[in-house]
Design a protein that fits this description.
The structure holds 2 protein chains of 2 kinds. Chain A is α+β, with helices and mostly antiparallel strands. Chain A contains 5 helices and 5 strands, in the order βαααββααββ. By secondary structure, chain B is an alpha/beta fold. The chains are: A alpha+beta, B alpha/beta.
Chain lengths: 126, 529
């Protein structure tokens, strides 16, 4: 849709991820022990984000609990308003400043991706 | 009206440049970049310096107040300056703008001067820098208005003095020749494995791939393009070299494997989505993912770094090996004057791949040293110590050095190495042309292919095996003990016996590695763990 911006909201890892991390780094993790819920977003976190999206007129395009990501779309003013971005700063999609989310979303959402479309990485071929 | 009243910035008074003559006014439309340093949220007690704390806690406690970052952003917007980067953690906001806008924003008169000794012209000013009253106590420094840099000229002379003689005559290899020098297992070809490759641009030509694999006498692997966030296989640009290198290196060594190439836009959103899509792809099921893209750690926002690191942790938890290039710009990672490592290579969940200069033939290596061709402008391997990620458990006895700037002992990279010097590079076919390409970009797919062969041979995926490799130590590697990756005269880092921050443990001694892994697979089967 014209004038719409698509964002990926990345949700925090579930509690189990801490233990997995420790065991991975210590070499005692066995992938066969994995349950899908060990890495998926907490369902309560997902519903919190979905109601935030609804409240802020953001359209939910895709909910992917396994990837802990929720894809939303909205107009520039709606997105600026929802994420506390100073008005007029988002136009060129190279916004690198902070985003502000109300509690408890500021704990639940660990990254808001898609505000900055400038290249992030270089190829390491010579 | 906000940001109208001005106050002088404490400590910013400067006399007119000495030893220089005024040339005159600058072009008002000339662009420049300034760095604003913000005050700490909380004053730093001495106790913190004695008892280092982890970076994130430190940043949260002693970084800049996010509200102040927002205030500076509003100021920038008001003055027609562009915000290039903000970091509450580093207490830094970088702004771009024209000479005219900077003069107005900071109440200065920037002018052009000429150094009477060297004849170099530079940007200078006299008097105070002023800041908007709202920023008093918030912004404590404005850097970069002035470009007089005495150390810079000296630095360049140092570099010229250090210049090495021209590089030795090139000896280049096919990927199969490099695999033979490292003793990769024969009799396996990656059958049953899928190698995932992440690409943030470019594309491949199936015709070129067919021609290339045929010229090497190998059956062409099955190569599939997977679209992420609208990315697609689009050959015809500069990034084709990367894409073809990755497919041709991994595909010629493991031609029995399926190669799934995930194309995503080159944004943090695209990159993170690509890693997650690849790691959780239940259709193609990659056992190993190769990534040859990255940027200096400090070029990432904390949020995208956190999200990407979590995605890499998921891949590890799922038992997927992720090989990532260490970068091609030495210990500065292309930001000369300071030490930087490349992310996502610096993630503790990456098998970070550094570069060497390899000389040998058949199965005999004559010499192998750290790749550093800075003098001839042919790059140097990345490597060093993360300023973000703490030292992982598996590196506790590796001897990772402290960062000289603040004593932080973070995640050390690379973990492993392999041939990367373009002078001893890989012959590949790109857009119909035969080319010799190097870079740590070649090492990530080289290691990914090795992992595919090992998985097939062992009958079990090695998965995230950094802790296992650190358990084996240099005994399963060709330990690289000569060379350094110093690219900007900082004196870091030098290779030595065992692990070091420019070659990791070294290049693979694949026979020894396979044998060590076979024993650990059979012993874990016996003990039932």
């Amino acid at each position: 849709m014209a004038g719409q911006i698509q964002l990926t909201l990345i949700l925090r890892q579930p509690e189990a991820a801490n233990e997995i991390s420790e065991r991975l780094l210590a070499g005692t993790w066995n992938p066969a022990e994995m349950n899908a819920a060990d890495i998926a977003a907490n369902p309560a976190d997902v519903s919190e984000v979905l109601s935030f999206a609804a409240k802020n007129s953001l359209q939910v395009l895709k909910t992917n609990p396994a990837a802990r990501s929720i894809r939303v779309a909205g107009s520039v003013p709606d997105i600026e308003n929802a994420f506390g971005i100073p008005s007029g700063c988002l136009g060129n999609l190279n916004y690198k400043g902070p985003v502000e989310l109300p509690a408890p979303l500021n704990q639940i959402v660990i990254a808001v991706l898609g505000l900055d479309h400038s290249p992030i990485a270089k190829s390491h071929a010579q | 009206m906000a940001f109208e009243a001005l106050v002088p910035l404490t400590g910013s008074t400067k006399a007119a440049p000495v030893g220089a003559t005024l040339v005159g006014a600058l072009n008002e439309q000339e662009l420049l970049s300034v760095t604003l340093i913000l005050a700490r949220k909380t004053a730093l007690p001495n106790a913190v310096l004695e008892q280092p704390m982890d970076r994130r806690t430190f940043g949260d406690t002693y970084g800049a107040d996010p509200a102040n970052i927002l205030l500076v952003e509003k100021f920038a917007y008001n003055k027609g300056l562009t915000v290039v980067e903000t970091s509450a953690f580093k207490r830094r906001v970088i702004l771009n703008g024209t000479v005219k806008a900077m003069n107005a924003a900071f109440n200065v008169q920037l002018q052009s001067y000429k150094n009477t000794k060297t004849g170099h012209t530079f940007r200078g000013r006299a008097g105070d820098i002023s800041i908007a009253q709202e920023l008093e106590g918030v912004v404590i420094g404005v850097l970069g208005l002035d470009t007089r840099e005495v150390a810079r000229a000296h630095f360049r002379m140092e570099r010229r003095k250090k210049k090495k003689p021209a590089a030795p005559p090139p000896s280049t290899y096919t990927p199969l020749q490099v695999a033979a020098l490292y003793g990769f297992p024969t009799g396996v070809d990656g059958t049953g494995q899928t190698i995932g490759i992440i690409e943030l641009g470019g594309g491949f030509s199936p015709t070129d791939l067919a021609t290339y694999f045929q010229s090497l006498g190998v059956t062409a692997p099955n190569v599939t393009a997977v679209s992420v966030d609208g990315g697609a296989n689009t050959p015809g640009g500069d990034a084709d070299g990367e894409v073809m290198l990755d497919i041709e290196v991994s595909g010629s060594i493991a031609p029995g494997a399926n190669i799934a190439v995930y194309f995503a836009p080159n944004t943090d959103q695209g990159f993170i989505d690509a890693i997650t899509d690849a790691a959780q792809d239940t259709t193609r099921n990659p056992s190993v993912i190769s990534i040859s893209w990255g940027g200096p750690e400090d070029s990432w926002t904390a949020q995208s770094q956190t999200a990407m690191n979590a995605a890499l942790q998921d891949a590890a938890a799922l038992g997927v090996t992720v090989t990532i290039a260490a970068g091609d710009n030495g210990s500065s990672d292309g930001e000369p004057g300071a030490l930087h490592v490349d992310f996502p290579g610096s993630s503790p969940y990456a098998l970070c791949c550094g570069g060497t200069t390899l000389v040998g033939s058949g199965s005999t290596i004559t010499s192998e040293v750290v790749w550093n061709e800075t003098a001839s402008n042919e790059g140097a391997t990345g490597g060093g110590v993360s300023a973000i990620f703490p030292l992982p458990t598996y590196q506790q006895s590796a001897g990772v050095p402290a960062l000289p700037t603040n004593g932080f002992v973070g995640r050390g990279v690379p973990d492993v190495a392999g041939n990367a010097d373009p002078v001893t590079g890989y012959s590949i076919l790109v857009d119909g042309q035969s080319e010799v390409v190097g870079g740590t970009s070649a090492v990530a797919p080289l290691w990914a292919a090795l992992v595919a062969l090992l998985n097939q041979q062992l009958g079990k995926n090695v998965g995230y095996f950094n802790p296992t490799l650190y358990g084996f130590g240099e005994s399963v590697f060709n330990d690289i003990t000569s060379g350094n990756n110093d690219d900007s005269g900082l004196g870091y880092y030098t290779a030595g016996p065992g692990w070091d921050a420019c070659s990791g443990f070294g290049s693979p001694d694949a026979a020894a590695l396979l044998s060590a892994l076979s024993s650990s697979v059979s012993s874990s089967a016996k003990s039932g763990t």
